[in-house]
Amino acid sequence: MNATSTMLSTAISDYLTTTPQEQVHAGFLAYIATLSEVSTVAPGMAKAIVQELDDQRSNLKLIASENYCSLATQLAMGNLLTDKYAEGYAGHRFYAGCDNVDEIERYGSEQAKQLFGCAHAYLQPHSGADANLIAFWAILNERVQVPALEELGTANPAALSDEDWSTIRHKVGNQRLLGMDYYSGGHLTHGYRHNVSAQMFDSHTYSVNKETGLLDYDAIEQQAQEVKPLILLAGYSSYPRSIDCRRMREIADKVGAVFMVDMAHFAGLVAGKIFKGDVNHPQDPSRTQGRAGAMHRGIRRRG
Ligand SMILES: Cc1ncc(COP(=O)(O)O)c(C=O)c1O
Q1: Measuring from each residue's beta carbon to the nearest atom of ligand 1, which residues come in under 6 Å?
Q2: What is the mean pLDDT of residues 5-16?
Q3: Pseudo-torsion of CA 170, 173, 175, 177, nearest 10°?
């Protein structure tokens, strides 16, 4: 036994011997027992986790991308499910033996639908950057690839000649994205050149008004008319104001674009019904942020 695991196992037995049975807190016990187990293999890691807990409890963290989730969520995320492989959708997997994961995904998806009042929710334990990629690919697929395949009289890409497939790939890879510029508060994944999104799309950006620091919807409309994007993207890393989603959707409709919202930073306000920007208007809201929960990522809704 190393010093950390000795300290943790002593803490567990002290806790159990000094706490009346009816007062034993299962969550605390699970937490400390997990750390004790980690410490037998990687004491430094267990120690760092304890230090992190102390750091989080002693200091005010103002990192916009961080959240604090419940102990129940932490425990649901850190268990044997990490071993699981479940490609596909609940009920439509590429492998057998996914019944339990199906149940988990369905449960999470139902919770998300209720919380955000939407018809569809696709729930995966990934990060916000991945969620945006998934939403982008879903739109590219629906709006570009599927119609292109239909024109060629098939739904099966594998049935195409190399030449036809190459034509489709060029079409898919040459669509325009219009999102907020990184330096105005937009996110890397919204078409910034250092991110894969700028390689996927011919990406264009709008800025906030230099005087007011606010979105200028008339200017965005004019730019959208010029760019004619496939996707008009709203939702930002640093824009502490409400977004007029109704207006953005109108702009998207005028230019034939799909309106997508990355509500990473205000999903909690939407769930709490405080956000007044009317998120019923996006065709593809993707709630990316929020480590607060197993409900961790992309949510799509069709308008
Ligand atoms: C608006 C926005 N979208 C997406 C992301 C990416 O989220 P993640 O860090 O979970 O990949 C961020 C990160 O802060 C963000 O601010």
Answers
A1: 65, 127-129, 132, 187, 189, 235-237, 262, 264-265, 288-289
A2: 90
A3: -170
